[in-house]
Structures are given as C-alpha cells and as structure tokens.
Amino acid sequence: MATIELYANKINSMPGLVTGIRNETNGLKSELMTLRTKVQSINRNICNVDDVISSITASTQTQEDKIDVLKNLAEDIQEFASDAERTDREVADTVNQNKEDFYEEYSYLKPFWEKNLFEQILAVLLEAG
To answer: What is the DSSP letter of 46?
Structure first.
C-alpha cells in the first residue's frame, strides 16, 4: 500500500475543512455588515459612531482578506493532494516493478509469503525433495 493512501482521507478532507472556515468567515463578514448598518442608526449623541463604523469597516475588510486567503489555500491544498497522490502512485509503481525485477533475477531470495501458489508448492516440493 502506498504511503499517501494511508492518509488519503485526511488529505482529501482538508479542502472541505478550509471551505467550512471560509464559509464561517463569510458569515462573520455578513454579521459585521449588518452591525455596521445598525450602528449607523444610533443617535450620534450617545457615542462616536464614526469610530465604531471605521472599526467595523476595517474588520469587514480583514474578513474579506481572510476569505480570499482561505479560498487560495483550499485550491493549493487540492493541488498538493493531487500532486502527492500522483507522485505516490508513480513511486509505488516503480518500487513494485523494481521488486518484481529483483525477484525475477534472484527468485531464491523471494519470501515465501510473496510467492504465488505455484511457487509455494514448488518451494515445498524442493524442500521435501
């Protein structure tokens, strides 16, 4: 079994987790925009609304920046997972081919449990012989 196959489920779930975070951040941004609208209706004599609105606007921009970063991260993770899976498959194929080539040349070194049924029967007969 190839190494990446052992962790494929975890790697493949990462873009979904990042998308979930992005959606939560998007929700926070929407809430901040709603809050900004509500704050604008507050009587200016109660507090300095301009400072509150500026702070909310800055927070909204921060959330938009995070959303962009998370979107790019999800895409990068997906690309990495695809590349890792492809590379792992290629390496596993190469290792298996090299193992087959080695045992073809040095069949007497092949472990019993890796031999097919015919080879196992032949090995048992030769040992008994």
So the answer is: T
